[in-house]
Amino acid sequence: MAGAGVDLGRLLRRIKPDKLAGPLPARADTDLPFAEQQQTFGPPLLLDTCVYLHVLKGQTPAATDRLIAGRTILHSAVAVAELTHRFGRRRPANERERAARARLADVIEAMPVRRVHAPGPAAWAEAGILAGLLQRLRTLPSDSARAGLDDALLIVQARDHGAVLLTANVRDFDILQQLVPAAQVVFYRAA
After folding, report:
1. 151 vs 164: CA distance, rounded Å
2. What CATH code is carried by the domain that includes residue 100?
3. What is the pTM of this model?
4. What span, in angstroms and rounded, lies between the C-alpha atoms of 40 and 67?
5. Residue 93 is assigned to a structural domain of this protein
6. Is residue 159 one of the residues assigned to a domain?
7. Are 45 and 72 in contact (CB under 8 A)?
8. Among 26, 40, 86, 129, which lies 20 to 30 A Cα-Cα from 106?
9. How many CB atoms lie within 10 A of CB 142?
10. Across-strand partners of 186?
11. Domains in the chain, number
12. Dihedral sign computed on CA atoms, order 163, 85, 62, 112
């Protein structure tokens, strides 16, 4: 039975959260796929929120810029929400902040609607389990109930859309990719 569009039993059988007891070890950089090792052509990229911010600040390495320029780009409604959160959190107190907001608004408004995807109930349910695992396996504070939920949603979306998730967040996505081995992730280090 799949109440609320979610087959919870199937998710639990696939993920097996009860079998994971100890922390997952972080992998060495040499064992992770980085942008410098990638072909410019290939499957679409789904961008983590940090990518938009690093591009705007000029903090992406040249190999990452080439990868972004050479691939079809998909956008997540999760990243859009994280980006628009800044409009509510920070006041436009000075010209620099107003200019940063304008550039961010331009990026969001330039996203083609056909390439912006929102997670459905099954993705949310899977991401909830994964975020709980990430919290437990990384021993995050219990008061951060949403810790890792947005990241888990992004990796599930990337897998579901046949895309490669591009991120500079090696710490969290290394663990998440170990939990979701069918998902493809490419990392970069921000300059």
Report:
1. 14
2. 3.40.50.1010
3. 0.92
4. 5
5. yes
6. yes
7. yes
8. 40
9. 9
10. 166
11. 1
12. positive
